[in-house]
Amino acid sequence: MSLEDGDPARPRGQQVSGEVSGAPRLRGMGTAAPGGSRTEAMAESWEPGPAPGDGDVTPAGASQRAGQPEEALMRELSELVQKVVKSSSWWERHGVDISILACSFLLLPAGFLCLRSAQAIPFLAGVLTLGVVHHTLTVKGSHLASHNALTESKSWSKVWAIFFIELCSAFTVEQATYNHVKIHHGYTNVIGLGDSSTWKLPFLNRYVYMFIAPLAVPILTPLVALDLLRNVEWKAALRTLCCMFLGFYCHYWLLLHVSGFQSPWSALLCMLLTRSLLAHPYIHVNIFQHIGLPMFAADHKPKRIHLMSMGVLNLPRNALLDWSFGHSLINCHVEHHLFPSLSDNMCLKIKPVVSQYLKQKKLPYNEDTYSSRLQLFLQRYEELMVHAPPITELVGIQ
Predict the structure, then answer these.
(1) What residue ranges do the domains of the chain occupy?
(2) Do 137 and 104 form a contact (C-beta atoms < 8 A)?
(3) The pLDDT of residue 261
(4) 69: which strand partners?
(5) Which residues contact 298 (CB under 8 A, 6 or more apart)?
């Protein structure tokens, strides 16, 4: 199957980048994924060195490309990336992203103090500052922490995961890691597992979903987290509840005592405003980069390198989103899915190596613009977000 790149006239079977044509055939709409228990999912994270195959059985012709087994392709790419990682300094591997998070913390006092002003421009500057800082900590920080990409220390990785995911984002570490790292990354675009279906709300129409519903993300996130606490041990649930309360209360207290809000309702309204400032691109990015791309049944998915190259898409660089969400969620999403333990800055550094390798091997390297994907989802919302997506049938990877 090909990518749907926003051009209604483009037939299925062509990639957005134009590198690959004659792609696999599709079955009909609405086919369910057989088998595959969520509790049996395992993370497919990357460690330096050869990357083994995932052991799936694919139809005849899908296991080789130009005489090379898929395991050899992934191993060769891993070796190229490993050379880049080994030649990189600590600053490149972790320091750049830690500095971005540290700068965000340093901007917090300025944001809260700007909200004291009765003038519109300083007040809006405070809202913008706190909104960007909030999303940098909760999206970029939480994402890096969930993949242990902030530090090479396992103990500190756990600490940062609790801080960014539970205190800042009001979610539980165990469920965030399970759903994102083990399910979404382990089974990217596999129907019923990692197909991004958690972002679908089929009872909403396209305009409500794309432009109004994102405003509810700050409210829905802790509610979903509370519901998921039933699936974790009581100690983890208690820790999450304490961290969630502390995070919300600190934000609320600072708005009252530093920013000078006179009523609880005005402070809560400001909290909602700042926490939903970038909620629209947050929702859009999560669906643009996977939904509408090839989808697979659990028992007929390709091996790792094809699964990630076919089912993941990069968006162009954007200064605001690169800072707030990180390169691995915007313009290096393909690289991130292939090597998820690397930091945002390292994903950016290995991008030329990965893109050149995939194109050289005639593998998909999917890229499209934000506006093009938005147009596609508005035009084909019923097909992509309401009905079950079609399943890609691998009859041979050309």
Answers:
(1) 86-386
(2) yes
(3) 96
(4) 64
(5) 33, 34, 35, 36, 187, 190, 191, 192, 193
pLDDT value for 48: 37
Band of pLDDT at residue 45, cut at 50, 70 and 90 = very low
Residue 68 phi/psi, 5-degree rounding, is -105, 130
pLDDT digits (tens, 9 = 90+) for 159-216: 999 999 999 999 999 999 999 999 999 999 998 888 888 888 889 999 999 999 999 9
Q: Rounded to an integer, what is the distance from CA 282 to the centroid of its chain? A: 9
Which pLDDT band holds residue 113 (cuts at 50, 70, 90)?
Answer: very high
344 Cβ partners below 8 Å, 6+ apart?
96, 97, 140, 144, 149, 326, 327, 328, 332
Burial profile 228-255: b = 16 or more Cβ within 10 angstroms, e = fewer = bbeebeeebbebbeebbeebbeebbebb
pTM exceeds 0.90: no
- Mean pLDDT (the chain) is 84
Per-residue CA distances from 100 to 11, 58, 103 (Å) = 41, 42, 5
**CA–CA distance, 95 with 335 (Å, rounded to integer):** 19
